């Protein structure tokens, strides 16, 4: 009887699969992502991971539309300039074609915004990552960086950004992709 009880206890301990939380998964992936760029990977010490923002498909599409509109305005200004100096006819034709392509992309995005049922689905998370590691001189330094991670199932690290200006101007076309498409683009198995 003792032998059977002991076997059951051992079996239950072995068969228990610990479900990792989102934060634990991202902590592990962060080290894997950073270790090739650290001066001393053995000195890496995780400090904190704080959720700052999340991006939905709808937000991402709206951002892309705004960027496209800025490109169109810039192209129109270039066309006006080239017309005023009567030069670069081939460049004018190229800019007009580019504007037409951008307008078609915007029309497609507006259409997707109207028919998407899951447009509030979260496609990425932004975290403030704090960690300590040794620099080139061997001194322990506290680093703060922004980390952009995908969503389920494995919260893939998309990018680590050093300052707030980069994150404010950030727009990732891959954020419009599904998780499957992101995995294919980044060649993750």
Commentary on this structure:
This protein is of the alpha+beta class and 189 residues long. It folds into two domains: 19-55 and 125-185; 58-115. It is 50% helix and 21% strand. It has six helices and four strands, in the order H-H-E-H-H-E-E-E-H-H. The protein has helices at 2-15, 22-34, 57-84, 89-115, 164-168, 179-185, and strands spanning 45-56, 122-134, 140-149, 157-161. Strands 1-2-3-4 form a four-stranded antiparallel β-sheet. Helix 3 packs antiparallel against helix 4 (89-115). It starts with a helix and ends with a helix. Mean pLDDT is 75; it is low at 171-183 and 185-189.
The radius of gyration computed from the alpha-carbon positions, rounded to a whole number of angstroms, is 24 Å
Estimated helix fraction: 40-55%
Structural class: alpha+beta
Report the strand count. 4
Strands side by side in the biggest sheet: 1-2-3-4
Order of helices and strands: HHEHHEEEHH
Q: How many strands, what sense, and barrel or not for the largest sheet?
A: 4 strands, antiparallel
Number of domains: 2
């Amino acid at each position: 009887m003792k032998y059977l009880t002991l076997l059951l206890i051992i079996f239950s301990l072995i068969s228990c699969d610990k479900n990792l939380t989102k934060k634990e998964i991202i902590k592990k992936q962060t080290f894997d992502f950073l270790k090739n760029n650290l001066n001393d990977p053995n000195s890496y010490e995780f400090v904190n991971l704080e959720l700052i923002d999340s991006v939905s498909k709808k937000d991402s599409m709206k951002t892309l539309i705004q960027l496209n509109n800025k490109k169109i305005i810039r192209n129109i200004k270039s066309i006006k300039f080239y017309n005023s100096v009567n030069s670069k006819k081939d460049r004018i034709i190229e800019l007009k074609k580019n504007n037409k392509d951008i307008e078609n992309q915007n029309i497609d995005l507006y259409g997707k915004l109207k028919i998407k049922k899951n447009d509030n689905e979260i496609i990425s998370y932004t975290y403030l990552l704090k960690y300590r590691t040794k620099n080139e001189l061997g001194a322990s330094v506290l680093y703060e960086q922004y980390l952009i991670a995908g969503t389920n199932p494995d919260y893939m690290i998309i990018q680590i950004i050093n300052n707030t200006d980069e994150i404010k101007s950030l727009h990732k076309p891959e954020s419009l992709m599904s998780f499957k498409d992101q995995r294919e683009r980044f060649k993750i198995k």
